[in-house]
Design a protein that fits this description.
- The chain is mostly helical.
- It has four helices and no strands.
C-alpha cells in the first residue's frame, strides 16, 4: 500500500512517477523498496490519468456512503413513527377504560 501512497504523493507534488522517485519516496519514510514492486507500479501507472482515476473512485464510493446514511435515517423515521403509533394506541385505550 505504501507504493500506491508514494505514487499519490509524487502526483500531488507534480513530480514524475518513475522508479527513482518512487524509491526515493519510500526510502524517505524508512521503507525498503522492492525493485519488482516499484517496476510493476510504474508500469501499471504508465499512461493512466491519475486525476480521472481519483474522480471515478470518488464517484463509486459516494453512493455507497449515501446508501448507509439513508438506511440510518429511514430506521430513525420508522422508530419515531412506531413510537407515535404506540402513544396513540395508549391514548385510545384510556378512553375505553
Amino acid at each position: 500500500m505504501e507504493y500506491v501512497y508514494a505514487a499519490l504523493l509524487l502526483h500531488s507534488t507534480k513530480q514524475p512517477i518513475n522508479e527513482d522517485n518512487v524509491k526515493k519516496t519510500l526510502s524517505a519514510i524508512g521503507a525498503q523498496p522492492d525493485e519488482a514492486k516499484v517496476k510493476s507500479l510504474v508500469a501499471s501507472l504508465d499512461g493512466v490519468n491519475i486525476e480521472e482515476a481519483i474522480k471515478q473512485a470518488a464517484v463509486v464510493a459516494a453512493p455507497a456512503a449515501g446508501t448507509a446514511e439513508g438506511k440510518k435515517a429511514d430506521k430513525k423515521e420508522e422508530e419515531k413513527e412506531e413510537k407515535k403509533e404506540e402513544e396513540a394506541a395508549a391514548g385510545l385505550a384510556s378512553l375505553f377504560g
